[in-house]
Amino acid sequence: MSIISSTPLLSKQKSQSYSSCDQGSGMAQIDPVVQLALQMLQQQAPILDRVENLKLGTQDIYSGQIKNGKPHGAGELKYAQGNRKKYEGEFADGLPDGEGRLWFQDGDIYVGSFVKGEREGRGEMAFIGGDKLSGNFSNGNDKVVGTFTWRSGKYFTGELRNGKFWDGDTYWFGSRDTSWKEGKTLCCNRDWHCTIQ
Predict the structure, then answer these.
(1) pTM as predicted
(2) Residue 106 near residue 96, CB atoms below 8 Å
(3) Which residue of 24, 60, 102, 149 is most buried, as measured by CB atoms within 10 A?
(4) How far apart are CA 76 and CA 10, in angstroms?
Protein backbone atom coordinates (compact mmCIF):
# COMPACT_ATOMS: atom_id res chain seq x y z
CA MET A 1 0.00 0.00 0.00
CA SER A 2 1.44 3.46 -0.89
CA ILE A 3 1.82 6.28 1.62
CA ILE A 4 -0.56 8.49 -0.33
CA SER A 5 -3.36 5.93 -0.45
CA SER A 6 -2.98 5.14 3.26
CA THR A 7 -3.19 8.81 4.30
CA PRO A 8 -6.72 9.52 5.50
CA LEU A 9 -6.59 13.17 4.32
CA LEU A 10 -6.20 12.16 0.69
CA SER A 11 -8.81 10.06 -1.02
CA LYS A 12 -7.84 7.24 -3.34
CA GLN A 13 -9.35 9.22 -6.22
CA LYS A 14 -7.07 12.23 -5.55
CA SER A 15 -3.99 10.07 -5.03
CA GLN A 16 -4.55 8.51 -8.43
CA SER A 17 -4.74 11.93 -10.10
CA TYR A 18 -1.23 12.77 -8.84
CA SER A 19 0.27 9.66 -10.37
CA SER A 20 -1.81 9.33 -13.51
CA CYS A 21 -1.02 11.06 -16.76
CA ASP A 22 -3.36 13.07 -18.91
CA GLN A 23 -4.52 10.95 -21.85
CA GLY A 24 -2.20 11.58 -24.77
CA SER A 25 -0.29 14.57 -23.34
CA GLY A 26 2.24 12.71 -21.23
CA MET A 27 1.85 15.41 -18.51
CA ALA A 28 0.91 14.65 -14.91
CA GLN A 29 -2.26 16.31 -13.69
CA ILE A 30 -1.75 18.95 -10.99
CA ASP A 31 -4.31 19.50 -8.29
CA PRO A 32 -6.05 22.89 -8.85
CA VAL A 33 -5.20 24.01 -5.29
CA VAL A 34 -1.50 23.27 -5.85
CA GLN A 35 -1.65 25.03 -9.22
CA LEU A 36 -3.17 28.14 -7.61
CA ALA A 37 -0.50 28.14 -4.88
CA LEU A 38 2.27 27.93 -7.51
CA GLN A 39 0.77 30.84 -9.46
CA MET A 40 0.62 32.96 -6.29
CA LEU A 41 4.28 32.20 -5.48
CA GLN A 42 5.35 33.16 -9.00
CA GLN A 43 3.55 36.51 -8.71
CA GLN A 44 5.17 37.31 -5.34
CA ALA A 45 8.71 36.24 -6.17
CA PRO A 46 10.76 39.08 -7.65
CA ILE A 47 12.20 38.38 -11.05
CA LEU A 48 15.77 39.61 -10.87
CA ASP A 49 18.12 39.82 -13.82
CA ARG A 50 21.74 40.92 -13.75
CA VAL A 51 23.22 43.70 -15.88
CA GLU A 52 26.71 45.13 -16.32
CA ASN A 53 27.47 48.79 -17.04
CA LEU A 54 23.87 49.93 -17.51
CA LYS A 55 23.86 53.68 -18.21
CA LEU A 56 21.04 55.36 -16.33
CA GLY A 57 19.31 58.61 -17.38
CA THR A 58 21.64 60.60 -15.13
CA GLN A 59 24.70 59.13 -16.93
CA ASP A 60 25.44 57.12 -13.77
CA ILE A 61 26.58 53.55 -14.44
CA TYR A 62 24.98 50.59 -12.66
CA SER A 63 26.02 46.94 -12.44
CA GLY A 64 23.96 44.42 -10.52
CA GLN A 65 20.50 42.99 -10.16
CA ILE A 66 17.48 44.65 -11.77
CA LYS A 67 13.73 44.24 -11.55
CA ASN A 68 11.40 45.81 -14.10
CA GLY A 69 14.35 47.66 -15.65
CA LYS A 70 15.43 49.35 -12.38
CA PRO A 71 18.26 48.58 -9.95
CA HIS A 72 16.82 46.17 -7.39
CA GLY A 73 18.76 43.77 -5.17
CA ALA A 74 22.55 43.78 -4.82
CA GLY A 75 24.51 46.16 -7.03
CA GLU A 76 27.02 48.94 -7.59
CA LEU A 77 26.32 52.47 -8.82
CA LYS A 78 29.08 54.79 -10.09
CA TYR A 79 27.99 58.42 -10.07
CA ALA A 80 28.86 60.64 -13.06
CA GLN A 81 28.52 63.94 -11.19
CA GLY A 82 27.92 65.47 -7.76
CA ASN A 83 29.68 64.77 -4.48
CA ARG A 84 28.91 61.03 -4.51
CA LYS A 85 31.44 58.75 -6.19
CA LYS A 86 30.21 55.17 -5.78
CA TYR A 87 27.60 53.15 -3.89
CA GLU A 88 27.75 49.39 -3.27
CA GLY A 89 24.92 47.59 -1.56
CA GLU A 90 21.22 46.92 -1.70
CA PHE A 91 18.75 48.67 -4.03
CA ALA A 92 14.96 48.85 -4.20
CA ASP A 93 13.00 50.42 -7.05
CA GLY A 94 16.07 52.12 -8.53
CA LEU A 95 17.43 53.67 -5.31
CA PRO A 96 19.93 52.65 -2.64
CA ASP A 97 17.76 50.99 0.00
CA GLY A 98 19.00 48.65 2.73
CA GLU A 99 22.59 48.15 3.82
CA GLY A 100 25.37 49.70 1.78
CA ARG A 101 28.60 51.63 1.44
CA LEU A 102 28.82 55.11 -0.09
CA TRP A 103 32.10 56.70 -1.21
CA PHE A 104 32.28 60.48 -1.69
CA GLN A 105 34.48 62.39 -4.15
CA ASP A 106 36.55 63.87 -1.30
CA GLY A 107 37.39 60.41 0.12
CA ASP A 108 34.82 60.27 2.93
CA ILE A 109 32.96 56.94 3.32
CA TYR A 110 29.55 56.14 4.83
CA VAL A 111 28.69 52.56 5.84
CA GLY A 112 25.18 51.80 7.05
CA SER A 113 21.48 51.90 6.27
CA PHE A 114 19.73 53.66 3.39
CA VAL A 115 16.05 54.32 2.72
CA LYS A 116 14.93 55.60 -0.70
CA GLY A 117 18.43 56.82 -1.59
CA GLU A 118 19.15 58.66 1.66
CA ARG A 119 21.19 57.73 4.72
CA GLU A 120 18.59 56.60 7.23
CA GLY A 121 19.08 54.52 10.37
CA ARG A 122 22.26 53.19 11.92
CA GLY A 123 25.50 54.15 10.20
CA GLU A 124 29.04 55.46 10.43
CA MET A 125 30.71 58.21 8.44
CA ALA A 126 34.52 58.02 8.23
CA PHE A 127 36.08 61.33 7.15
CA ILE A 128 39.30 61.51 5.14
CA GLY A 129 41.07 63.41 7.96
CA GLY A 130 40.48 60.60 10.46
CA ASP A 131 37.36 61.94 12.22
CA LYS A 132 34.26 59.70 12.56
CA LEU A 133 30.54 60.18 13.04
CA SER A 134 28.47 57.20 14.16
CA GLY A 135 24.86 56.99 15.21
CA ASN A 136 21.31 57.11 13.87
CA PHE A 137 20.94 59.16 10.69
CA SER A 138 17.63 60.78 9.73
CA ASN A 139 16.71 62.39 6.41
CA GLY A 140 20.14 61.93 4.88
CA ASN A 141 22.53 63.95 6.98
CA ASP A 142 20.01 66.51 8.28
CA LYS A 143 19.85 64.97 11.75
CA VAL A 144 22.23 62.53 13.43
CA VAL A 145 21.97 61.36 17.02
CA GLY A 146 25.26 59.78 18.01
CA THR A 147 28.93 60.47 18.52
CA PHE A 148 31.36 62.59 16.50
CA THR A 149 34.95 61.63 17.31
CA TRP A 150 37.91 63.78 16.28
CA ARG A 151 41.18 62.13 15.31
CA SER A 152 42.67 63.64 18.48
CA GLY A 153 40.33 61.58 20.68
CA LYS A 154 38.07 64.46 21.68
CA TYR A 155 34.42 63.61 21.02
CA PHE A 156 30.94 65.11 20.93
CA THR A 157 27.95 63.08 21.96
CA GLY A 158 24.42 64.25 21.26
CA GLU A 159 22.47 65.56 18.28
CA LEU A 160 23.86 67.11 15.11
CA ARG A 161 21.66 69.00 12.64
CA ASN A 162 22.84 69.88 9.14
CA GLY A 163 26.43 69.22 10.18
CA LYS A 164 26.28 71.46 13.29
CA PHE A 165 26.48 70.38 16.91
CA TRP A 166 22.94 70.95 18.19
CA ASP A 167 22.34 69.49 21.63
CA GLY A 168 25.04 67.65 23.54
CA ASP A 169 28.48 67.86 25.04
CA THR A 170 32.09 67.53 23.93
CA TYR A 171 34.53 65.56 26.03
CA TRP A 172 38.29 65.65 26.23
CA PHE A 173 40.16 62.96 28.17
CA GLY A 174 36.88 61.85 29.75
CA SER A 175 35.92 65.30 31.09
CA ARG A 176 33.17 67.48 29.69
CA ASP A 177 34.74 70.29 27.68
CA THR A 178 31.93 72.22 25.94
CA SER A 179 28.14 72.03 25.92
CA TRP A 180 25.81 72.83 23.03
CA LYS A 181 22.16 73.87 23.04
CA GLU A 182 20.14 74.45 19.84
CA GLY A 183 23.29 74.90 17.78
CA LYS A 184 24.88 77.47 20.10
CA THR A 185 27.91 77.02 22.32
CA LEU A 186 27.18 77.22 26.00
CA CYS A 187 29.61 79.12 28.16
CA CYS A 188 29.85 77.18 31.40
CA ASN A 189 31.64 77.83 34.67
CA ARG A 190 33.43 75.17 36.72
CA ASP A 191 30.14 74.01 38.26
CA TRP A 192 28.57 73.68 34.78
CA HIS A 193 26.12 76.56 35.17
CA CYS A 194 25.82 77.56 31.51
CA THR A 195 24.67 80.49 29.38
CA ILE A 196 24.14 80.48 25.60
CA GLN A 197 26.76 82.43 23.63
Answers:
(1) 0.68
(2) no
(3) 102
(4) 50
